[in-house]
Write a structure and sequence with these properties.
By secondary structure, the protein is an alpha+beta fold. It is built from 7 helices and 7 strands, in the order H-H-H-H-E-H-H-E-E-E-H-E-E-E. It has a single domain, classed as 3-Layer(aba) Sandwich (SMI1/KNR4-like). The strands form 2 sheets. It has a 4-stranded antiparallel β-sheet with strand order 1-2-3-4. Strands 5-6-7 form a 3-stranded antiparallel β-sheet. The radius of gyration is 16 Å and the shape is globular.
Length: about 200
C-alpha cells in the first residue's frame, strides 16, 4: 500500500467518526480512463495519479471541502479546471513560461504552468494544485488564486503530507493547515481562516 493510500484511509476513518457529512460527500473511485489524463499533455506523477484513483471527487461544495476551503475534484473535473486555467493565463505573455518551468517546484511563476495540476477548487476562482516541476519540492501542494496566481509558500510537501495534516486538524482542536483551521459543524468540515 502506498503512502498516499495509507494517509487517505486513515483520514477516511477519522472523517467517519468526526465529520461523517464530509465523508459521505466523497464519491467512490470510478474506473480509470487513460484518455482523460492524456488531455493534460503531461504525465501525472505517482502521487497525483494515485490520488485520483482513490475517489471520484466530492459534492456538494460545502459538504465536500475536505481540502482547506476547497472541494475535492475528480480527475475529469481536475483536467477541465487545469485546462481552463491554462487557456486563461497563457493568453498573457508577461512571463517566460519555459524559464518558469525550469525553476524548482515551489517557486513562484506568476502564471499557470503546464506542470500544475488542480486537485481541488474553491468557490472564488481559485484552487489547490500540485506543482510537478522537478526539484526537492517536486509534488508539493500549493494554493492558486485568480489574482495572486501561485504567489505563496507550499501548503504541503506532498499530497501524503497534506492528507496527514488534514487528519490531524480533524482529530485535534485548533490545528492549522496552511492558514486554515478545520471546525466540525453539522458533521462537515468548515474551514475558517486561522487568524479569524
Amino acid at each position: 500500500m502506498s503512502s498516499v493510500e495509507m494517509a487517505w484511509l486513515r483520514l477516511i476513518d477519522a472523517l467517519a467518526s468526526r465529520a461523517p457529512g464530509t465523508r459521505a460527500a466523497l464519491r467512490p473511485p470510478a474506473p480509470a480512463d487513460p484518455a482523460v489524463a492524456g488531455r493534460l499533455d503531461i504525465e501525472l506523477n505517482g502521487e497525483v495519479s494515485e490520488w485520483f484513483g482513490l475517489h471520484a471527487g466530492a459534492a456538494p461544495f460545502f459538504d465536500g471541502q475536505l481540502l482547506p476551503f476547497n472541494t475535492v475534484l475528480s480527475l475529469p473535473d481536475a483536467v477541465e479546471a487545469t485546462r481552463l486555467s491554462r487557456s486563461i493565463w497563457w493568453r498573457h505573455e508577461h512571463v517566460d513560461r519555459a524559464a518558469a518551468e525550469r525553476q524548482p517546484a515551489g517557486t513562484t511563476a506568476h502564471t499557470w504552468l503546464a506542470s500544475y495540476v488542480y486537485i481541488g477548487q474553491g468557490g472564488t476562482g481559485g484552487g489547490i494544485f500540485v506543482d510537478q516541476r522537478p526539484g526537492p519540492l517536486h509534488g508539493c501542494v500549493r494554493f492558486w488564486d485568480k489574482v495572486e496566481a501561485d504567489n505563496g509558500r507550499p501548503v504541503a510537501a506532498s499530497i501524503t503530507d497534506l492528507l496527514t495534516a488534514i487528519r490531524t486538524a480533524v482529530t485535534t482542536d485548533d490545528t492549522d493547515v496552511a492558514g486554515w483551521t478545520a471546525l466540525i459543524d453539522n458533521d462537515v468540515i468548515d474551514w475558517t481562516p486561522t487568524s479569524a
